[in-house]
Amino acid sequence: MRLGWEAQNASRRLMWLAIITDIGLIIAYSVIYFQEPFAPFTNTLLADILTVTAAVCSALAASLVWSMYEKTDAPRRIWGFFAFGLWLWVVGEITWSYGNLTLPNGEVPIGIPDAFWIIAYYFLGQALISQYKILVHPTQSELTSWVARSVLFLCLSFVLIFSTLRWLDISSSLVDTLVNAFYPAGDLTLALAAIWLTRNFQGGALGRPWIGLLVFTFSDLMYAWLQLSGAYAWSLDQGNLVSGISDIVYFSAYLVLSIGSFSQWLFLKYSLRSPSKAP
Amino acid sequence: MPIFSSFIPETHSNVSPGFVDILIRTQREELFTGLMQLRYPSNENLIFTFVDGVEQKLYRSHEHATEIIPRAAWSQLVSRSEASVGLLSLSLEALRLMRVALEAPVAHVDQLRLRPQEMLENINRWASDQNPSTVQVKTDNVNRWYLFADRSSSILEEISLRNDKFQFSISDPLFAQLFPEGEHEVVRYISSREHAAWQEYELRLAFNPLMHMLMQRFSELAGRVLTERLCEQLSIWAREGGWNIVISSNGAVNRQYFDTLEVAANAYTDILRRFQTEVVPAVGTRLAENMFRESLMKLPPNFRDILNRYTYMQFGLGSAPLIIQKENTKL
């Protein structure tokens, strides 16, 4: 990008531009959600378009980071997996939005979107494993043990949530319960890994995307918890704030994730340059 | 060590102090790098070292030791008549080796006659000796000098004198394999590791692999593009600081002549500090500290000790006990 700015200024200005754009998107989403200024279908359409846009922003930012690394660079592998996982979430959002706009009452059953969302966890997991390998240089047995512990944690939390859901009898079918139990379990596992990475990078620019992922997984956890406890449906029926806040947090989390990746891209592109060198 | 002085070719004899002064000024103008020897009838032997036309030090050599003359006394010492002047042009690398040979005290001299095979057997012993040494080997028409200071590396710095020409090269502990059969005269000047000249020499040898490992680790975390930019930034910064040190992803290309250990230690510390300043915004404080710790731990013990003593201790990135303590701590 040639803007005629000095590297430091370009980086700062683009970052502010991204933040202001994101705030604008959050405001637009909130207005559409709470004020419902248009016809119901248009409101839903715009809200869905904004959600897909936010998801595209995060996937695009991760892809930009991926493109900054050369083929021989170890981090390229991380960002390849990470970006692919986020693009799968984009497809998940698009297919969900299609269902939301075309199905009666906008209720999207467990199905194709969830397939994309769930498969994405595998690629995000691979990204985390690649980052772990670069950070720690584990031996094969250490790596196996780390992965085994993560999978065990995922399975245990999944079984626990699944059992709770079955006991509460919230989800209607077995498949619904399985899928609904997977999201919080997967988010919790990703969140723990993201906390570990954020702690290791301790304020470094290369750790910012992991902070984004952390925020995303927590917002997703909150959404999942509200869904599973029935609070979300109740709030939606009552037209109160809980479901709205949850949806806005979920929407914002995509943008936080995109800001995290975008700031890493800016760092890779503009940092460590002499002030005299134009980007 | 006076041994080199006999190899410096005499260019002017019996000259006046005024002419010596003209010769010194000529070397300044010609940006001369090398040695200038002044011999007096009283058997007194003075050696100036020049780097890019600037006099660095003046040595007065005795039989097995060399004394460094304070700058204030230079004019008085050279303002005597009947001087015989010799000039020896050297590369910067050769001059750095000379500096060690001139300044390091000789505690003991071993005179041996060895065949190449016997020499190979001795080389390992010399290399692993606690005390560093300068080894002179005479073969046919060639004189060679080697510095044995680095107990862990396979790198040996060598100066060879062939047909009145000194040449610096990097050799390895198998150098004797190339010597012709038969016995060769070997003189080993054993010195003390604690002397500042050896410490500075070893610190320079240790700094390069440290930088290489730091860059390699940063490249793993941040990629090649950012690493290249970091190298460029550090090199520009070093150049602006007046040091002829270029940082690359393979380590440091060090063409700086440090005349004291203290100046060298400060320069290396400043470069490491700058490296830290540049990488912290990318990888964070914790990872930056880990990079330093891991790189240091991967180095051979003698390199680790010397870096810890003269650089790490100065900017608080883990003193020896802290590093050892942290060695057991995973990320």
Global geometry of chain B:
globular
Name the chain pair with the biggest interface and residue counts per chain: A-B, 26 and 25 residues
**Side-by-side strand order of the widest sheet of chain B:** 1-6-2-3-4-5
Average pLDDT of chain A works out at 87
Total of domains of chain B: 3
Please count the helical segments of chain A. 9
> Which range best describes the helical content of chain B: under 10%, 10-25%, 25-40%, 40-55%, 55-70% or over 70%?
40-55%
The coarse silhouette of chain A is globular
Topology pattern of chain B, helix = H, strand = E: EHEEEEHEHEHEEEEEHHEEHHH
Low-confidence stretches of chain A: none
Low-confidence sequence ranges of chain B: 318-331
Sheet bearing the most strands of chain B, described?
Answer: 6 strands, antiparallel
Strand runs of chain A, count: 0
Q: How far apart are the termini of chain B?
A: 49 Å
Q: Biggest sheet of chain A, open or closed, and with what strands and sense?
A: none
Structure classification of chain B: alpha+beta
Fraction of residues in H or I helices of chain A = over 70%
Radius of gyration of chain B: 22 Å
Structural class call of chain A reads mainly alpha
Question: How many separate domains make up the residues of chain A?
Answer: 1
Q: How do the helices and strands follow one another from N- to C-terminus of chain A?
A: HHHHHHHHH
